[in-house]
Design brief:
- The structure holds two protein chains of two kinds.
- Chain A is about 80% helix and about 0% strand.
- By secondary structure, chain A is an all-alpha fold.
- In chain A, helix 2 packs antiparallel against helix 3.
- By secondary structure, chain B is an all-alpha fold.
- Chain B has one domain.
- In chain B, about 65% of the residues lie in helices and about 0% in strands.
- Chain B has a two-stranded antiparallel sheet with strand order 1-2.
- In chain B, strand 1 and strand 2 form a beta hairpin.
- In chain B, helix 1 packs across helix 11.
- The longest helix of chain B is centred in the N-terminal third of the chain and has 38 residues.
- The interface between A and B is medium-sized, with 22 and 28 residues.
Chain lengths: ~170, ~350
Amino acid sequence: MQLALFIIFGALAVAGALNLLLQRHPINSALSLVVVMMSLAVLYWSLGAEFLAAAQVIVYSGAIMVLFVFVIMLLNAGKEEKTTGSRAAYIAGFPGAAAIFCLLTFVFLSEQKALGVANLGGHLNSGLNNIEELSRVLFTKLLLPFEVTSVLILVAILGAVVLARKEDQ
Amino acid sequence: MSHLSPFQIFLLLSIVKIAVVLVILLTTVAYTVLLERKVLGHIQNRWGPSRVGPFGLLQPLADGIKLFLKEDLMPLAAERPLFVIAPIIALTCALISIAVVPFGAVHRIHGVDIFAITDINIGLLVILGITSIGVYGIALSGWSSNNKFSLLGSLRATSQMVSYELALGLSLVGVVLRAQSLSLRTIVESQSAHGLLSWNFFGGYQFVAFFIYLMAAYAETNRAPFDLPEAESELVAGYHTEYSSMKFAMFFMAEYANMVIVSCVATLMFFGGASSPFGNLIPAFGGAVVQALLPVFWFVVKVFAFLLLYIWVRGTLPRFRYDQLMSFGWKFLLPLAMANIIITSLVLALHG
């Protein structure tokens, strides 16, 4: 059951990502990205990370992608011109992508022992509540990085406000 | 049922539950429309629909037939696939949330809880997530119609929903802190000890959170006084201007289904869900069936009261201006919700 879910939504994520690249209208690409985010959320859930899944849906597909769609709607971006692509992309791109894929596969396979094996759906059956454990770690062990990250985000917001505000003259 | 395996029983009962709940929800939606027209009529000193059936009770049926038989117009300049998908997204997201709402006490038949479709440990987050996805239906409908009024309506709706989602989510944190769980069943159980006195609204001192939730929820469902996305005096009909026939009906049903869901969540979070307001004061009467159905009765009464409040507010309050709406959400509701979280957690930390 969980394996079937994993395969279905993994395939959906890949299909959405390909559609994102192939679609010529920006809004269709943005919506494909939403599909990818949602499938990723289901994958997280099937790995037992239900809080991460909910946060993925609420933050990424519910807020950030809405802003993307919003901006595309406001800019009224037209269809992209389809070009054959630069020669550099063909010469360097495909071998490069293949090389990275091979490298990652090699690392994952050779370091299998050190990385450990994810238990697909195993956590779903045990009914373990990982929000409690997550918050305990966040507010004890990782308190400083957690708070510093929030300050970092605050700085980013302030920077955006300063950049967006026009000088009154 | 002895020859069925537990999984088969679970599957069959789940399908039956989903079908029953869906039918009840859609009927509720249809009759909420009638209730609204009736009550608004009486508020404005007129009768409301009274011709079809006794007291106009068959009006929803007539409306449904009318909408079904109308011509389905497709604007020439519309983005076809998105124009069709948008109302489906809106309605689906409105209907899915009911899956995690428990509408009765725990009552198991063959190990399956029959008064809730499912009980998951992050039920509350699931509802918030589905609500946040529902924005796409409205945003896409306005854009794909290729009509400036639709686009303006959907832009207003999107910005309003994204802004008020924050206050909505934060207002519920106080309740989650008290219950120490995100499962809706556990949240209801945490309020069922002493009837009315242990509800989060009265005994839990979460009334500030409740009013924040109520206002944010009205904005989230695009209802008066926050109905700017479909302000008929400025935007024709807002994001669904170009829609007709069943596609329009889907938006209409989505709006009322969202109202029902929001009322359900308000009941669960602040008013003890399916628990009785009298606690254990009333001795158990009737048979086992009456005792099983009594919580469902209380739940329905509470949700019905919230729906009436929705209609009352719509009949009473004028519409906000756009800048007032934004500053109200960001400068008043959000800081208030944060203050509520800080005070609640302080009190919980000091008194345990």
